[in-house]
Records
---
Amino acid sequence: MQYINIDKIALTEITKISDPDGRGNLSVIEKDVLPFEIKRVYYLYDVPSDSSRGGHAHKELKQFLIALSGSFDVVLDNGKTRRSITLNRPNKGLLIPSGVWRELENFSAGAVCLSLVSAEYDETDYIRNYDEFKTFEF
């Protein structure tokens, strides 16, 4: 198995425009922010704090996660090492390439996770068994 270097996966700054009259902020994701065309958008919410989501890898799909509200941790695993990144700002996102196992956990009350992905839903793109993931050739 060729291991993805998860140390290079980092938060991406999303343009934040602050209203000069103090009416809040606006963040924008346009064509040059992501290295893929967005084919699907979904969001997670009302996830209990003791629950986790994810628990899979993708063969081809790329994913960009944003904490629109609240916070949660994204555990990244390349089959050899693991690291955790906290998402807690709506103007920062996390680009997860294919070939990386991901788990989302420690959801705060009111957390909303927005997911922008590079493909429509395709069950054959998922690897849901960790042992299978560790032997898959990406």
---
Amino acid sequence: MPPASALRPHPLLERLRRRLLGPLFDRLGYDLVPAVPDWTHRPLSRRETEALIGSAAVRLDADLAACGLALPGGAWPEVAAFWDLIGTAPVAQRRGGNGFNGALQLYVLMRALRPRIVIESGVFRGLTTWIARQACPEAEILCFDPDLSGLRYRDPGARYHARDWSACDLAGLDLAQAVGFFDDHISQARRVVEARARGITRLIFDDDAAAHRLHAHGGPAFPTIAMLMDAAAGPEPVRWRRNGREFVYRPDDPEARAARAVIAASHAFDDLHAATGYSPARITYVALAPPGSGDST
């Protein structure tokens, strides 16, 4: 893990933040906090560390079982390895992207799925690319994002494309061995349809929020998987307001129906907040029906 001094703000800047800038921003209605990743805050004593790892592992084992997946030694060794690994992450992000819980879930899922190819749509600063590489050292990783200017980590073995993944020719790749990871603020129904058309049947989605919680999330991709799979939803449109702008989702939208028809199973992972104390994650695993089945809408 990097030395603590490399992760803490400079003492002079921290005093300036606390005494002058913090109170000023507070009066303006903003919260000024140091830009350090959440995993720098951690228990140090053995009993509490093992309690956190064990609690997370129990939930992750249950989530994997619900997906029809498993790790040979269970989740505990993988969570313990990740606990040591995350401190070496080359990307220190606080806002946007994944925190500890989302990164842990992605790591464990990739370890269980063991894809030969990873398609990543939505790269941001590169943390999730790094996580995928740690989990699957031999995988071929293809990264897609219209704007790659914010990268803080560039994987030397990955291929980067500054465009939408649907616009890229992937001929010659065995996509049946691929996993698609989508964290790109694009309709998750659209991503399901696109992945199915290319023969990718194992998908991971970030930011999968239920319809009644969507108003609390900035820039959500909708419909989310939770919205698509809501068995209690009727034909009535779902409406909400965010930052003064009104949004609407119609469950009978043709793309939503097409996506719903090819989803064989989906499972939203436990947000892990109760297990770890870190900010909740919203990771969902989706298995699609094999090509040639479930195509009717």
---
Amino acid sequence: MEELPNCPKCQSAYTYEDGNLLVCPECAHEWSSSDNEDENGDDQKVVKDANGNVLQDGDSVTVIKDLKVKGTSSVIKIGTKVKNIRLVEGDHDIDCKIDDFGAMKLKSEFVKKI
């Protein structure tokens, strides 16, 4: 019987296969077995803008769509420039500070790299 690798997130030994994925029942982390062979659990998420350019911390981006600010009647207009972004985990994967709005989180699909 093939021994499965430990979970890269919590190091649990109780991983199991589910189709092409490996699953940890303790922390619910899922990953593919090819990821484990290539990177040894050191998975870095690649964040891309609307045009497919890879984004990195410190990049400058432009908003490509009018974005409503949740909880207010404000709108971030198309063409708004955002400098010195920071990439974070989650659905809204860009953390930034926008002039006249303050600190915000944006989705990478609504920006393009300058």
